[in-house]
Structures are given as C-alpha cells and as structure tokens.
C-alpha cells in the first residue's frame, strides 16, 4: 500500500511521463513522513525497479519505471471496477488477424446461442474475429479484464463441457 501512495505522489508531480525534480524533503512533506524515511523508501523503490532516480546538483530527478506505472494502472483498474462508471467507453486500436478458426463452432452451440439471443435480443454472427492490440490498447484491455462485463453461463452436452463467456 505504501508503494502505491508514493507512486501516486510521484505521478501527481508528473513523474509518470518524464523525470521530475523532487527532493526527499518535498516528497516527505507530501507523505507526512521524515526526509530520512522517504529517502529510504525511494532507494527501495529504485532497487525494485519501480522508479529511476538521477542525482543532480539541486536535488534528484525521479521517474516512474514501467513497473511502477503498471502498478498504478493495476490499482486504477481495481478501483474502477469497484467505484468507476461501468458505462465508460473504451476505444481499443489494433489489427484484425486470423484466429484459430474455432469461433464459429462455439457460436453455433445451442447453449451459447440461446443465452446470447436472450441477453442481446438477436442471434449474433456465428463466428469471432481476433484483434491484435497495439500500443496503449494493450494496457487498456486490462480495464476490460477487471470489469464485470456480461456473462454467458457455461453448460454441458453429452460430449463435453463448455465454459462461461464474458462479453461487453
């Protein structure tokens, strides 16, 4: 929890996008701790690869590393799933690619078709397409992963068991 609070303070100072000059004293004041404690925490975050620090003549420059940004994005997704607006539109960019060719098989299963018809009000196209996400869309997909979405229940036939489906 402490890591998230420190990373949040640094991000609010803009250190999630670029190195920012920030002294241990200034950060300590924001965190309500001593300068020595804050300095130790920053050293620890740096050792664990969550931030990078560059000493300078008038203090230090601090920037969140990819791992630090990832922790904040994960916390954001979790908090959004609890408190966030569920109707938020998410725009994902990518390229349509060939999949395994099995989408049609699954979409033709009566157990799925019946539930999709009931929840959507129509029978969807009996197939799927794969989207290879690019750039920030890869991280934004995490928002969908942590969102409840809609659920189609799994079912059993004489031959096999079909798992549940999450859709948006």
Descriptive account of the structure:
- The chain has 168 residues and is of the alpha+beta class.
- The chain folds into 2 domains: 2-68, Arc Repressor Mutant, subunit A, CATH 1.10.10.10; 91-167, Elongation Factor Tu (Ef-tu), domain 3.
- Helices cover 45% and strands 19% of the residues.
- The protein contains 7 helices and 9 strands; from the N terminus they run H-E-H-H-E-E-H-E-H-H-E-H-E-E-E-E.
- Helix 1 crosses helix 4 (66-83) and helix 2 crosses helix 3 (35-47).
- The longest helix has 18 residues, at 66-83.
- It is elongated.
- The model has no long low-confidence stretch (mean pLDDT 88).
Question: Could you give the topology of this structure?
Answer:
Layout: H1 2-12, E1 20-21, H2 24-31, H3 35-47, E2 51-56, E3 59-64, H4 66-83, E4 94-97, H5 103-107, H6 110-120, E5 130-133, H7 136-145, E6 150-152, E7 155-156, E8 161-162, E9 165-167
Antiparallel strand pairs: 1-3, 2-3, 4-5, 6-9, 7-8
Helix pairs in contact: 1-4, 2-3
Tag the structure with descriptive keywords.
Arc Repressor Mutant, subunit A; 168 residues; 7 helices; two-stranded antiparallel sheet; three-stranded antiparallel sheet; Elongation Factor Tu (Ef-tu), domain 3; 2 domains; alpha+beta
How would you summarize this macromolecular structure in one to three sentences?
With 168 residues, the protein is of the alpha+beta class.
* Nearest-integer average pLDDT: 88
In the predicted model, the low-confidence regions spanning at least 5 consecutive residues are: none
Number of helices: 7
Cα-based radius of gyration, to the nearest Å? 23 Å
Under CATH at level 1, the class of the largest domain stands as: Mainly Beta
Order of helices and strands: HEHHEEHEHHEHEEEE
Number of strands: 9
């Amino acid at each position: 929890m402490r890591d998230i609070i420190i990373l949040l303070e640094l991000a609010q100072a803009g250190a999630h996008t670029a190195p920012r000059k920030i002294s241990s004293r200034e950060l300590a004041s924001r965190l309500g701790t001593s300068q020595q404690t804050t300095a130790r925490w920053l050293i620890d975050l740096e050792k664990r690869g969550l931030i990078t620090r560059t000493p300078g003549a008038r203090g230090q420059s601090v920037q969140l590393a990819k791992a630090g940004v990832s922790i904040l994005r994960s916390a954001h997704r979790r908090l959004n799933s609890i408190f966030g607006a569920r109707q938020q539109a998410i725009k994902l960019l990518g390229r349509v690619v060939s999949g395994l060719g099995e989408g049609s098989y699954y979409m033709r299963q009566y157990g799925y078709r019946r539930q999709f018809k009931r929840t959507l009000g129509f029978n969807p196209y009996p197939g799927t397409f794969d989207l290879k996400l690019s750039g920030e869309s890869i991280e934004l997909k995490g928002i969908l992963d942590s969102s409840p979405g809609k659920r189609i229940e799994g079912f059993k036939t004489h031959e096999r068991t079909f798992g549940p489906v999450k859709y948006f």
